[in-house]
Specification:
22% of the residues lie in helices and 16% in strands. The chain has 767 residues and is an alpha+beta fold.
């Protein structure tokens, strides 16, 4: 069901990283950091050796071409500390602020210039190899770092799936678990500032060894370094580390609780985002679905039935429930179900080393870096990745078997095939998983963030329109300069952003009802100004106005959240849900008519029968069982493919109702006669008869037993096989003297609802 090879390169690549540096002189936070140019000695195309040549691919990714790195490094190490994620191995405490006009810059200025002295606040102006991977070798190039262990390439393959590596940066707006003291602004009267950066400063690289060699490699816990936001998030940042507007709390949209007297609860969609919506980790981690991506492994292995599965079945399940299982298997490692520990993590879907050619659905400049890509022979649609696992394993163009339990057939429903006795019909939603399940939900700086949200939850138009609070006013004050010659004259900028509700729903990305024009929420008024070093505090105001009944171009028939579709969604899902319940009720009644306790008992018994042995009623029962299960397990309740889904439901209901009661069991009609009734010893006697109804026989294999009565008990004497027309005959040489009281017996045949049948008796005397 699931075949990929691209991930192998990223896995193997972790094993060939290098580094070395003199003691007490290193750039950035960690002394054992290796810069990417040293890794290229083995990993660049054209270099000798068997190391994976991933350097050139990485260099073309957004990680390798981080255009924000230079400006991020020269900003003050306050607030979110952008450089912590936009540069490599960042150390905010190494920044020495220096006033220059209205902006603070880091001293002495460039990463390259500081490498030789070991005083740079960062090691690289991009997301380098050792931002994720631990290095190796003591080396002979001290400018590149130092790893005295020289063992990093032995990190277990399964650790490659650790989501914390990506989550260390893709967790805006998280906060470090500790505060960090940074150098104060020159001339400032305030004490040395404390900050709580919004990334995992010092988070161990993939493969960092544990303190004790006996404990092996250390897959660090992100929670030890970062407070990752989630619904009901605590703890919040230290107020002393975020005072004066240095950093904003991540806030979530709130929905009323199902209990009218309960307080509103958080939902995992961000009200304040980050350019590019770099909060994929908390969204993924708080997906909140049973069998969600983050808990895909634990939700499976914690089930009571898991222990009873044979190893081959377990491994089949793990193909889609464990990213590290796939990594180890596709890398040629011998792996069992006991070896895995991660669900579907970042590298289960994305390739860190290859930008690929597939682009973002909303932001056409964004590289998805998905494992399914045109360069690997797949269509340029990230949704193809979803259906690699979200399918019922029904071969294209075929149907499920009557009585089968179909497991989440999302692909089949979208493609419109797989149900029994229902004509194929593809959905208009085919190939649009991302448009519906990953619609943008957050704002930043007065504009919609176009990164796909990773909760994967459907945001209905009603949900998007009714989220609270409305509106949201955020005020942040940030020091931008202390002009030379006037250390007490502080220029400030106040941003007041009035935001409306969630920018999009799952439907509005396509169904904006505005003549095909894509809904685009935008600020309707914007005022900006340039602060003057000598001026008083200046207020900059940006106001965002959006209305559910208006599109971005002001057409009242539009609607950015497609609220006009909500009643259609509700009606179709309610109808489907009611029909599913009705079908199950009819199946329970049908089971009783077939002689079973309930639907489950009937399905268990009937699938044990050979298909050729089932009656028409039994087959109809099993068809209805499979069809209703197909729709129920698929989960969308008609939304993925309304035309096909409703046909399946109607067919299943008809099939369940068509099951009639089984007729009362009838005995076989058995005749029996002998060619002679009195013979001498050694004479042959022919015995013959018929079995009716002949059409109920297993042709050529139905065996009749000829019995002899002795001392009042019937015992087997001879057996004979019937012909297809039900007739049988046998010639027997009567070698024993005496009186033979005989009869023919046909045993019960449950498959055709026939009970045992006996013939009359025949007496043969042998002299």
């Amino acid at each position: 069901m699931f075949k990929r090879v691209t991930i192998v390169a990223l896995v193997v690549a972790a094993f060939v990283l290098v580094m070395a540096v003199p003691a007490l002189a290193f750039n950035g936070y960690r002394s054992d950091y290796t810069t990417s140019d040293y890794c290229s000695i083995c990993h660049k195309a054209g270099q000798p050796g068997s190391a994976p040549k991933v350097y050139d691919q990485w260099a073309l990714t957004k990680h390798g071409e981080d255009t924000e790195a230079a400006s991020a490094l020269t900003s003050l190490p306050y607030g979110s500390v952008c450089a912590g994620c936009h540069t490599a191995n960042y150390a905010p405490a190494k920044v020495t602020p220096s006033p220059s006009g209205t902006t603070y810059v880091a001293d002495p200025g460039t990463v390259t210039g500081d490498q030789a002295t070991g005083n740079s606040a960062a090691s690289e102006l991009d997301i380098g190899c050792s931002s994720c991977h631990y290095g190796a070798t003591t080396g002979d190039a001290p400018q590149y770092g130092n790893d005295s262990n020289d063992t990093a390439h032995m990190v277990p393959y399964g650790n490659m799936a650790d989501p914390g590596i990506c989550g260390a940066c893709h967790s805006r707006y998280s906060y470090t678990t500790q505060t960090i003291a940074v150098t104060p602004v020159p001339g400032a009267t305030a004490p040395t500032p404390l900050i709580q950066p919004q990334m995992a400063i010092g988070y161990p690289m993939l493969g960092s060894p544990a303190p004790s060699p006996s404990t092996g490699w250390n897959p660090a816990s992100l929670a030890d370094y970062l407070n990752v936001p989630h619904p009901g998030w605590t703890p919040t940042p230290n107020p002393s580390a975020t005072a004066g507007g240095f950093g904003k709390l991540m806030t979530y949209w709130k929905l009323p609780d199902a209990n009218p007297t309960a307080a509103a609860h958080d939902t995992p969609w961000q009200q304040i985002g980050h350019d590019g919506s770099a909060a994929q980790y908390p969204e993924w981690a708080s997906e909140g679905l049973a069998f969600g991506h983050a808990d895909a492994l634990t939700a499976l292995t914690s089930q009571p039935f898991w222990a009873s599965f044979p190893e081959s079945v377990k491994q089949s399940c793990l193909e889609c429930h464990s990213a590290d299982f796939r990594i180890m298997k596709e890398s040629g490692k011998s792996v069992t179900s006991a070896d895995v520990k991660y669900g579907i993590t970042c590298v289960g879907c994305h390739t860190p080393h290859d930008s690929g050619t597939a682009k973002g659905v909303w932001n056409g400049e964004f590289d998805d870096q998905v494992t399914v890509d045109p360069a690997n022979g797949s269509a340029a649609n990230g949704s193809n990745l979803c259906v690699e696992c979200h399918n019922g394993e029904i071969p294209a163009g075929s149907t499920a078997s009557p009585g089968a339990e179909v497991h989440h057939p999302m692909k089949e429903m979208m493609d419109g095939y797989g149900a029994i006795d229902v004509a194929s019909f593809p959905s208009v939603h085919k190939g649009k998983c991302i448009q519906c399940h990953m619609a943008p939900t957050s704002w930043s700086r007065g504009s919609v963030q176009l990164g796909a949200n990773h909760t994967f939850n459907i945001i209905t138009p009603e949900t998007a329109n009714d989220v609270l609070p409305i509106p949201v006013a955020t005020v942040a004050v940030k020091t931008t300069a202390t002009p030379s010659g006037s250390p007490t004259a502080v220029v400030t900028t106040t941003n007041t952003v009035t935001q409306d509700v969630m920018p999009y729903s799952a439907c509005s990305t396509c169904h904006n009802n505005n003549n095909g024009i894509k809904a685009t929420p935008v600020p309707v008024s914007s005022v900006t100004t340039t602060p003057s070093p000598a001026a008083s505090p200046i207020q900059v105001t940006v106001t965002v106005v959006q209305n559910a009944n208006q599109s971005a171009v002001g057409n009242s028939s539009g609607g950015d959240r497609a609220l006009w579709l909500q009643d259609t969604l509700d009606q179709r899902q309610s109808w489907t849900t009611a029909k599913i319940a009705e079908i199950h009720s009819e199946l329970n009644l049908a089971a009783v008519r077939l002689g079973y306790a309930d639907e489950t008992a009937a399905q268990t018994a009937l699938v044990a029968k050979a298909a050729a042995d089932r009656t028409t009623a039994e087959t109809s029962f099993l068809k209805a069982f499979t069809n209703v299960g197909y729709v129920e397990s698929e989960g969308s309740r008609g939304i993925h493919n309304w035309d096909y889904s409703r046909q399946i439901v109607n067919t299943a209901l008809f099939e369940a109702r068509s099951v009639e009661a089984q007729p009362a069991p009838a005995p076989w009609g058995v005749t029996f006669k002998a060619s002679k009734t009195s013979v001498k010893k050694g004479t042959k006697v022919s015995y013959s008869g018929t079995i009716a109804p002949a059409e109920a026989l297993a042709f050529g294999h139905a065996t009749v037993t000829l019995q002899r009565s002795q001392n009042g008990n019937w015992t087997k004497w001879k057996t004979v096989v019937c012909r297809a027309d039900g007739a049988y005959s046998i010639s027997v040489k009567m070698n024993g003297k005496g009186t033979y009281k005989l009869r023919a017996l046909m045993p019960a045949y449950n498959a055709h609802n026939m009970t045992q049948g006996n013939s009359g008796t025949v007496t043969v005397k042998v002299k």
